[in-house]
Design brief:
The protein contains 3 helices and 9 strands. The chain is α+β, with helices and mostly antiparallel strands.
Length: 114
């Protein structure tokens, strides 16, 4: 099965997602890996992952930074108002200021990816 997205091309092959950027891991695969490596059930691993993600989202929404030493920091960043273009008409439009989530990778994670 082939899916086309806005700026990416993804091919689903069994449990492996392959895109033009390489192999991607989805949530189910991450849960399976966590369950295997920690010797807990998949249901427990999913509950733990969901809880961690929910707490990160709630904290960032409040404006708190979430720092995971060795991995990175999740923050809430302000985007300035700016002028954009309507792609269909080419007409200039005003894009209002907005808050957006931001992730900054930690030094250890950056070094590992190099």
């Amino acid at each position: 099965m082939t899916k086309s997205y806005h700026h990416d091309f993804i091919i689903n092959i069994g449990y492996t997602n392959v895109s033009k950027r390489g192999v991607q891991m989805n949530k189910a695969q991450l849960i399976e890996k966590i369950a295997t490596e920690t010797k807990v059930s998949k249901a427990q691993a999913e509950a733990i992952l969901d809880c961690a993600v929910e707490n990160i989202k709630k904290s960032v929404k409040k404006g708190d930074d979430v720092k995971l030493v060795g991995f990175g920091t999740f923050t809430k960043a302000k985007r300035k108002a700016r002028t954009g273009r309507n792609p269909q008409t080419g007409k200039a439009i005003k894009i209002p200021a907005a808050w957006a989530p931001k992730f900054r990778a930690g030094a250890e994670f950056k070094a590992m990816v190099k």
